[in-house]
Design goal:
It comes from Streptomyces fildesensis. This protein has four helices and seven strands; from the N terminus they run αββαααβββββ. With 220 residues, it is α+β, with helices and mostly antiparallel strands. Strands 1, 2, 3, 4, 5, 6 and 7 form a seven-stranded mixed beta sheet that branches. The longest helix has 22 residues. The chain starts with 8 loop residues before the first helix and ends in a 7-residue tail after the last strand.
Length: 220
Amino acid sequence: MRAPTALTAAALATASALLLTACGGGGSDGKSDTIPGVATTTATASAAPSASATPTATGPDLTLPADLKLEFAWTTPSDHAQAVALADAANFVQSIAHGVVKRNANDPGLKTYSRDAALAYGKFHVQNHLTHGWTLTGTDRYYRPQIRVAGDGQTAEVAFCNDQTKMYGREVKTGKVLYTQPSDKDLSYYSIIMTKLPTSPELWQAKSIEVKGKATQCKQ
């Protein structure tokens, strides 16, 4: 999510790395978690010009206000495991935005779609906005997803690009939109480790997350 100075994409990447290290996630080499057997199933969901996938609507309410839009610009993979892992990764991202606009670091969506380091990351992000009195407005775009499912079908790595060129912070008290000039800071690359919930096969939770700022490879 876009925010001024105190929570830029670079700061998010640093906070994420610290959280992952503390919770046993990604190592200090900056690489995302490795998944045994992950190379056995790999897929890239290509975006159709007129298609925009949306998170599933079977879990907690993730509705956003009219002035805030999260656009997931990809088509649903044909493989069921890949499709569910990707959809719930999108749900996790949207639950963070939902927590921000609802002013709730313990948003039910966050607790449903994340755990461990990913949950800590989401709470950190929401709490930072609460502390500074910010909410979100504009359009946040996610695209170029790649999904790798482990051989046992229980774990997956979901990665995608993020463009926040049209995403801004907004002061809650004044309503002032904190506009910034477009730059490479608006581009990020997400890598999320998703795990299937044993008690609910149709629910995948984000376990850890790595966000790399100034992701110039995501330029369109």
